[in-house]
Each structure stands twice: as C-alpha cells, then as structure tokens.
Amino acid sequence: MSKKVLIVEDNELILLLNERYVTKCGCEVVGRTCDIEEFKLIVKEQQPDVILMDILLGQERDGIDFVLSVPESSAKVIYLSGSSDPATLSRAKLTDYHAFLVKPVIIDELKAALSF
Fold first, then answer.
1. Superfamily of segment(s) 4-114
2. What is the average pLDDT across 86-104?
3. I want to staple 77 with a disulfide (CB 3.0 to 4.6 A). Which of 47, 81, 97, 111 is the partner?
C-alpha cells in the first residue's frame, strides 16, 4: 500500500512539481492546499501518512503553525523551505518533524525522506 501524502504549498508551479515527485516516489497525493482550515479538514478526513509542508506560505501563519494546529495527527511531517535559518529550525523542532529539505527539492532526497 502506498503512502498517502498531503501537500501544502502556496506556489502553484512548486506544488505541481512536488505532486509529480511524490507520485514518482510511489505515493498517493490525497490533498493539496495552502489554507489552514482546508488543511485541518483534509488531515481529519484523509488521515495522510505524510504531510509535505512548505514553511513560508506568504501568510500570517506559516507551515509550522499549520502542523501545530493538528496535534492529534500521526502523519510524518517533511518540511520544505528555501531557508534553513536557526530560528526556523528551532521552531520546526517543536513539531517533531521527520525531515527538513531545502528547496529546490531533489527527487532522490524526497524519495529517501519518504522511505520509512
């Protein structure tokens, strides 16, 4: 059975690329959004195995806030970010994430992160 992946990304081109990569890695995309309320609903209804989460979403809430909004989820979080500054990494650690990948993501890195 393939892993169910929810993608959270605000850039349409990156979203499409990530969706293609996830599919090539043998996983199923069960949702895609950058809206926190829709995110919570998809997590509840689809119960993804993995959340592929962009950190900088161009909103007042970032991807870390999204993850913190669903503490009951057992999904493994893979953060994607163009920045790996210490403050962001420190906040991300609050969520006990599975992997932190720096954009642009390379498919082999994503595949390794998805192979758990």
1. Response regulator (3.40.50.2300)
2. 92
3. 97
